[in-house]
Amino acid sequence: MSTPFYVSPQQAMADRAEYARKGIARGRSLVVLQYADGIVFVGENPSRALHKFSEIYDRIGFAAAGKYNEYENLRIGGVRYADLRGYTYDRGDVTARGLANVYAQTLGTIFSSAGEKPYEVELVVAEVGETPEGDQIYRLPHDGSIVDEHGSVAVGGNAELISSFLDQRHQDGMTLSEALKLAVQALSRESNGSQREIPAERLEVAVLDRTRPQKRKFKRITGGQLSRLLAEGTTTQTESESAEDPEGE
Amino acid sequence: MEANTRSTGRLPAAFLTPGSSSFMDFLSEHQPELLPGNRQLPPTQGVVEAPHGTTIVAVSFPGGVVLAGDRRATMGNVIAQRDIEKVFPADEYSAVGIAGTAGLAVEMVKLFQLELEHFEKVEGVQLSLEGKANRLSTMIRSNLGMAMQGLAVVPLFAGYDLDRAKGRIFSYDVTGGRSEEQGYAATGSGSIFARGAMKKLFRDDLTEDEATTLVVQALYDAADDDSATGGPDVARRIYPIVTVITEDGYRRLTEDESSRIARSVLERRLEQPDGPRASLL
Fold first, then answer.
1. pTM for this prediction
2. Which residue in A88, A106, A216 is closest to B11 by CB distance?
3. Mean pLDDT of B13-23
4. What homologous superfamily is domain A22-239 in, according to CATH?
5. The complex's ipTM?
6. Where can this protein be found (chain A) (predicted)?
């Protein structure tokens, strides 16, 4: 029988964190932005059927980067949690804050229990409010911490680069088309500074639209509507961009 | 169970176990006591007195289907509620109207709505209309124990079938037996009278406006002959609930729209109390 090596807790945690981060970095990043009428989710996803974004409850949406089977598992857990809570109490008692807490506890317990492999996922839980001030966006990294975000957030491998790009350019009260184009611009940036083209059919886009008359505010944007939004005011956009460029970079 | 939804701890194992896309299946494994069908029934003598909903009618027309209900709930010979709602959207493309024990029926509708929504969220696609109708069958069947004690729930289910591009109506019996109805259907205590009215007025080529008028005529006839069905209450401004489901989804007529139809029907009835007449041959 061999004597196990001593590994300090710091080292063990650092190893686990690195393992999880590497797993997350293998996938493409995605972004979640506030716009005037709600919250938009944008990501690159070649699959039509396997989603990165989905509806959890009336006003709550979910986005995830990382390992599909792990975040899908968490997503379904979240839907079960929300539906059961809404059924037991009232639909209004299901909140993004509550859901984010449950996810944080779940991820945190898995991350720090030596017997389990840490989840290679990074989540965003967003809830659209009656007004932009009521919007809530929570980012949940693999270790179970919660970050309360405003305006814009990026998760996934390239997240740091993309969020700093978004932080500089995102404004309150953007239209859906403006926010969408900014998101695509941010996602097309490579770590070496170059740009690549993401065609519309590789984009997965969804919104939580507070102006929808239905109680369920989550909606996917696909096909014609997506191309229209991407094309909207393209000429004015390039003009303002070139005007802005000298001071921007 | 190590935790439940009332705390904000880690998600219990049951939540993260891969399994069925059905919310009812999840409940029956995780918290079976929340399912209406699992309730322990105390022995009772005689019939339990509880408010009952009465008449629901449905008519299909090219392009969709109309589902409507009166507003009266009765308990024995007493009117328990004058403005009860008995027609609910089940999801974007279907609706359910309920007759029978109101409390249980409303609970059943709530669970049914959740069942459809849960499936849609987990799977990313809607159930087929047939699938939804079958799911409702299962729920009624699970209520059989209470139905035997007089607490029956008998719904009418209508929806727009996106695959077949038409409106369809399903009726149920107390044991969960399901049958698809052609053209029109009714359930509840006033249904025999409503069905008679619809039989005479129904045509295959109704417009949406004609179909909504037809259901109000039928409900009027039901209220005329059945004491448990309420007619349009002009004094209190309580009108039947009329819903239309088409390719564009579920829509409930606004109070203005339903009051307009109800008032025009009522006005004609002041001159001709038995309503429109079908030709003899």
1. 0.90
2. A106
3. 89
4. Aminohydrolase, N-terminal nucleophile (Ntn) domain (3.60.20.10)
5. 0.88
6. Cytoplasm
